[in-house]
Fold:
Amino acid sequence: MKSKFSITNFLPVILFSFIVIISGLVLYKLRSSSSPPSNITSQLIGKKIPEVPVKLANLNLNINNEEFLNFKNYQNQLFAVNFFASWCAPCRVEAPLIEDLSKIIPVIGIAYKDKDIDTKKFLEEFGNPYKKIGADSSGKIAIEWGVYGVPETFLINEKGDIIYRHAGPLLYNVFKSEILPLIKNKNQ
Amino acid sequence: MKKQFCSILSICFLYITIISNITLAEEKNTQLNFLTNKTREIAQNIKCLVCQNQSIDESNSELAKDLKKLIEEKLNDGLDEDEIYTFLRERYGDYILLKPPLNTNTILLWFLPFIILVFSSIYIFKFFKK
Amino acid sequence: MIPELGHVFLVLAFVASIMQIVFWTYHINSFNELALDILKKSALLNCIFILISFLILTYSFIISDFSLLIVSNNSHTLKPLIYKISGTWGNHEGSLLLWVLILSSFTFLVSYKKTHNNGELLFSIIGVQTLILCLFLAFILLTSNPFERVSAIPIEGRGLNPLLQDPGLAFHPPMLYVGYVGLSVSFSFAVGALITGKINKEWAQQIRPWITIAWSALTMGIALGSWWAYYELGWGGWWFWDPVENASFMPWLIATALLHSIRILETRLIFINWCILLSILGFAFSLLGTFIVRSGLLTSVHSFASDPSRGIFILIILVISVGGPLILYALKSSLFREQKLQFNLLSKESALLINNLFFTTATATVLIGTLYPLFLDAFNGDKISIGPAYYNATFAPIMAPIILLMAIAPFFNWGKGKSKNLLKIIAILITTSLVSVITLYTIDGSSIFAIICGSLSIWLFVGVVSDLIIKFTETKIKLNKVSNLFIYISKNKIGMNIAHLGVAIFLAGVTGEQFFKTEFSGRKNIGDTFSIGNRVLEFKNFETINGPNYQSEMGIFTLHHNSKFIGYLKPEKRYYPTEQTQTTEAAIISNFLGDTYIVLGEGNYETGWSIRIYFNPLVSWIWAGAFLMALGGVTSIIQNKKTFNNATKVSLNEI
Structure:
């Protein structure tokens, strides 16, 4: 009995080619991307800053007797929010770049799961580039921002929308290729 | 023939007894944890984002602990399972769910296995009709 | 100097394989015995070259020759000897060398096996095997050279990941590779059949032992990996549907379907297309697995360091070695003439057909689950995760009917014949299933899946036992002497029964562990005694210990069950200074009825320690079941050796 299904005999090749082509595309994409593939895109891009109130860190830098971070103070300009911690090694590595960033646009820091004393020591050692510093000792604020590790840096535009998120320490090539262009665009 | 039948049955009942004894003798779910069962059920479906392929129920990382506390709090506030998943999805994306939600992205994922199964069954049916 | 020699031998093997391939393609249409003899001898030569190369690499690891890059990256002088040796394949380059060693060894064994009577087929088999060998040697020499030197020789190596310094994991890769590479033999048989254009029952009889060996090794390899994950990773899980696990599971599913299909082809000339296609797909999935693990496509618990450029190379290998045969299959498979046979719905042939369809659907499901997140990401950038919940909803329901079929298919007859005992057996099965469903329901009515899983296990067990007992009574032997048992085994093929019994036991283990486990977690200090049900645990002491290359913090517990002392549990937290990693070593007391499993967390003498305790009923049945499956495979090879060597045609009655 001759096998009748000559068309279905081609099915395996067709499916196989499909898998190969797409795998090839994925690999090609992997080779040409700069950030590690495991970084997930923030869900908050294009959305407003989370409404959750952020207490200011108690670092004896408080001049105006404020209690909470007020993001509205930075309306009408581009600014950055940087989640960091004294116990976080990559945060130390990115400290100089955050300082560079702070010279271009205002940067607000949020100390993640840290003690005020340790935050203070960290800032004394690496300098304080932040306009204001919030404290998220429980980690709940980070969850609201979709943060899953430190450090993470967000860019917010003048309308109060989050336009960019970088997870991991800020590296020079990311700074140059991703962040600076966004800043330049806004200033045009 | 009767001998066959009896010996088969007796071995089978022995087997059933063994398995039942084991499970009867064990206490079921004496949960002395600080987490309720429902929390753990949900936690088993949430991916630990800082681990290599674990759920936050299995993981001991800080993020996992924080998320578990969060789930517990939300449950106490009266949210149901779906609302908690939605809460996490809004902040972390579908990626954090270990059970992929059913939407336009995943419709193929969920239905393709059963489509294949249906086609196979139709093929078998047609084959024997001849 | 010596490592360079290792490299030279690899180059020699590569050059030799190219010459062999040219020779093979030149003589492919003008076969003669002399050409076959030359090819056989060169297969032996390849094997010798690669063996020398592999031994040189192993030697370099044993003497801790840090001038080699992979030795300095993955080894350390303080490492125990056995892990120095197993470190040879504990890295990407070394494991590939092991891969080609096994491949060339199999080629040699196939070519020198005495019972081949089809020289033309053998000629192409060796040719295809050598082509694959050549592709992999090219890959090794161009991208993954194990003998690469460092310019500045370090005094000490960087050590081996502590998770890998473990006996279970030392044997897991070699066993797994025997499985993967063993499937290349059936692959070559199939491609050989397509090339020569001939296939018959002898083809199936010759291919069968190779598939059985590969399948048994793959079963053991997967089981070892799963068992290792259970006791080493510290949270009591044994299967995570991790892409790397799936990569080993898919070839296993295909190999199982192939194993059963070959049994049919041995006796009647039907399902030829299934046999050929499954043979090609089995090895294709092995290669796909290699691709997934090493290309950087997916990151998981134990994928090797990822490198997309390697990925492209493997993809090319995949296209040549799988795409080629699949095109050949599409073009030539319709030329095979099959027997025109009819069969009932409840016949062995029908069972095989249903079995194959369900198994390929199941394999497709696992493939979809593994690749979907990737493809979606490539398509629109959205990222999703696929965890066990997906597979429980899709894979499990597809396998459930197979379990039902497994118990009754042995009682089907061939073709249009009537089955003798079928009705009686179905009556017994339904009765015992009702009893088991009711029993399980009274134990715990809340989980319907527990009831289903447990009942399936019992259904299958009953089916297997019934078959064994019927065979007993038909052979007319009394089980009063041990020697009678041997007579029974010599007259009855029980490989299948043992393997299916293994599945039943495996399912029982899954039921116990998944649905009936209990867990306690909290903080305890030295001197605390706590009881859970009939078990009493006492936290006796806490010690710090120095191992050969680690420092350990160890908690010491005693376990009493029903007031009887069972044993000590000593969970540890180890710190490996060289690798700067910490591992948790769970303490497990294991017996027939289940495991007691303790994990030690952080803590101190003031606040006590955080601990987690699991009671896992029947969990060792999971690996006992897998072991029985492999044993069934080995049994069937041994029991069939006599029939095969005597070149006796397998008669219809003996199946």
